[in-house]
From TrEMBL:
Organismal lineage: Bacteria, Pseudomonadati, Thermodesulfobacteriota, Desulfobulbia, Desulfobulbales
Top-rank taxon, per record: Bacteria
Family, as annotated: Belongs to the cyclophilin-type PPIase family.
GO MF, any single term: peptidyl-prolyl cis-trans isomerase activity
Residue spans crossing the bilayer: none
Catalytic reaction(s) noted: [protein]-peptidylproline (omega=180) = [protein]-peptidylproline (omega=0)
Domain PPIase cyclophilin-type, residue spans: 43-176
Coiled coil: 192-229
Keyword Lipid metabolism: no
Pfam families, per the entry: FKBP_C (PF00254), Pro_isomerase (PF00160)
Protein name, UniProt field: peptidylprolyl isomerase
């Protein structure tokens, strides 16, 4: 038995040595770029970081690894190499390994979040991709994952910011609880050497990204306004940004807040006109208390102002609908919605 234990120990030690030797050999021939070497309890993983395509995410990762990022009161203090000593707290066979949680539970982070950097040409089309774990759009922090296999269902949902260049076998052998002993950042070439990754660089890059996002939102809003003006020239706009067209006038009073209303509807995406739901198709109106947050804000606002029997077309902006999260895989993040709505009774 003792002999078998020694044999297993030397076998494991041999594997770790081979992994380390492979990484060292790779380091001698690396092309210019920014790299991260994850020294784990199972061996080394060499990652190339896409600092040219996802600069904010890479700055954050490197800043945490080197202790130059200012934390927001997280479990580890500023100045400490954030990832050293953490574990891979979540491992799913034939899917991915996930690490970067200072609590080891999947609920921790650096106590701040930052936006996604979704690059259309970067897709989950092969093993060994390094990406940010998140709890929804723009909730990135410190947690990351590395894939075992292609995972196309994650496209557009997680920022891909690097890839494995050596050590995919180590990735495949990682088990839940295995440790990240140390993360070393390797800069090869002048461009990588000059790429700033301190907190000042993070703040500047974050501000530039937010400005770019705001400009894109404004451009999209202008295009939507032109579309609405062309398709529904008689549409009225409320102070909240909701557009509506009265198709048929109703009679009597409007419902009071909390009153249970019955409404028929058909919902479509403004972008392509695709129908995603309809009570008419089911032959049964829906019932809900109006004006108390049981439905999307655009609905609450519109139906609170409608009379019995009234029909409207509602053109609802994302912030009055499902926002940046979308809904159920049917409504994309940031989608404008169009509803044909009839207030049947209340």
């Amino acid at each position: 038995m003792r002999r078998n234990i020694f044999l297993f120990f030397f076998f494991l030690t041999g594997l770790l040595c081979l992994s380390g030797q492979a990484i060292q050999a790779k380091e001698q021939t690396m092309k210019d770029g920014l790299y991260a070497k994850l020294i784990t309890s199972k061996g080394d993983i060499l990652l190339k970081l896409y600092y040219d395509k996802t600069p904010l995410t890479v700055i954050n990762f490197v800043g945490l690894a080197e202790g130059t990022q200012i934390l927001g009161g997280a479990a580890k203090p500023t100045g400490v190499h954030f990832y050293d000593g953490l574990t891979f707290h979540r491992v799913i066979k034939d899917f991915m390994i996930q690490g970067g949680c200072p609590l080891g539970t999947g609920t921790g982070g650096p106590d701040y979040t930052f936006p996604d950097e979704i690059v259309p040409e970067l897709k989950f089309d092969r093993p060994g991709l390094l990406a940010m774990a998140n709890a929804g759009p723009s909730t990135n922090g410190s947690q990351f994952f590395i894939t075992h296999v292609p995972t196309p269902h994650l496209n557009g949902k997680h920022t891909i910011f690097g890839e494995v260049v050596e050590g995919q076998d180590v990735v495949n052998n990682i088990e839940q609880g295995d440790r990240i002993e140390k993360v070393e950042i390797i800069r090869v070439g002048r461009e990588a050497e000059e790429f700033q990754t301190d907190h000042k660089a993070f703040e500047a890059t974050l501000a530039a990204l937010k400005q770019k996002e705001e400009e894109a939102r404004q451009k999209e809003a202008d295009a939507v306004r032109e579309m609405i003006k062309k398709k529904w020239p008689e549409a009225r706009k409320t102070a909240s940004g909701l557009y509506y067209v009265v198709v048929k006038e109703g009679e009597g009073e409007t419902p009071r807040p909390g009153a249970t209303v019955k409404a028929h509807y058909t919902g479509r995406l403004l972008a392509n006109g695709r129908k995603f739901d309809s009570s008419y198709d089911r032959g049964e109106p829906i019932s809900f208390p109006v004006g108390v947050g049981r439905v999307i804000r655009g609905w609450d606002e519109a139906l609170s102002q409608m009379k019995r029997g009234e029909k409207r077309i509602l053109i609802i902006p994302p912030d009055l609908a499902y926002g940046d999260r979308g809904a159920g895989g049917v409504i994309p993040p940031g989608a404008w919605l169009v509803f044909d709505v009839e207030l049947v009774d209340f």
